[in-house]
Amino acid sequence: SDIGSQRDRVVTEEEWLQKWEMGNIGFHKDQGHPLFQKYLDVLLNGRSGLRIFFPLCGKAVEMKWLADMGHSVVGVEVSEQALKEFFADHSLPYCEQPVPEISGAKKLQSTSGNISLYCCSIYDLSSSILGKFDGVWDRGALVAVNPRDRQRYVSLMITLMEKNSSYLLVTVSYDPNKHKGPPFYVPESEIKSLFG
């Protein structure tokens, strides 16, 4: 399955930061993603008090929903603006602290302690920093990472998952020769080979 001209496409961290600065965030959904509601029970599987990871989280409203249900939420995002907007949008007090293991990284944590958002590159993170997760909501991460970085991304995600964790993944299907992305086209065959 060919991903066409997207194979070598690279979107830089600066370009993502610029999208947030310019308010060019059509990927953000104020009402949350409809598939989240539809498959939430699959993600949670009747379990409570889970640790849920949001890769490339932006200011996803689903983080607040899960925290309100008693789960612990951890996200990562390069845009500090996005993270600060998340806390502001929900009127949540938070504190900021450095992440000793990662130069220049910050952790923004809700005062209640159940939402921790890391401002850094996802590739700077590891299970020794974050721990492991019972669930992952990947709504716009795999489709946003540069195609050449997919294997690296998925390898990291697998190291962050507990044995019985659930991974909820949203992708988009279209002709990759007609759009340059992101979101990038990730064929189902590639998802199967990446995740095994």
Question: How would you concisely characterize the structure shown here?
Answer:
The chain is 31% helix and 20% strand. It is an alpha/beta fold.
Structural class: alpha/beta
Give the count of structural domains. 1
Measured between the Cα atoms of the first and last residue, the distance is 16 Å
Q: Report the C-alpha radius of gyration, rounded.
A: 16 Å
Mean pLDDT: 95
Give an overview of the whole structure:
- It catalyses: S-adenosyl-L-methionine + a thiopurine = S-adenosyl-L-homocysteine + a thiopurine S-methylether.
- This protein has seven helices and seven strands.
- With 196 residues, the protein is an alpha/beta fold.
- It has one domain: Rossmann fold, CATH 3.40.50.
- Strand 6, helix 6 and strand 7 form a beta-alpha-beta unit.
- The mean pLDDT is 95.
Topology diagram in text:
Blueprint: H1 13-22, H2 34-44, E1 51-54, H3 62-68, E2 72-77, H4 80-89, E3 94-98, E4 106-110, E5 115-119, H5 127-130, E6 133-138, H6 150-159, E7 161-169, H7 188-195
Parallel strand pairs: 1-2, 1-6, 2-5, 6-7
Antiparallel strand pairs: 3-4, 4-5
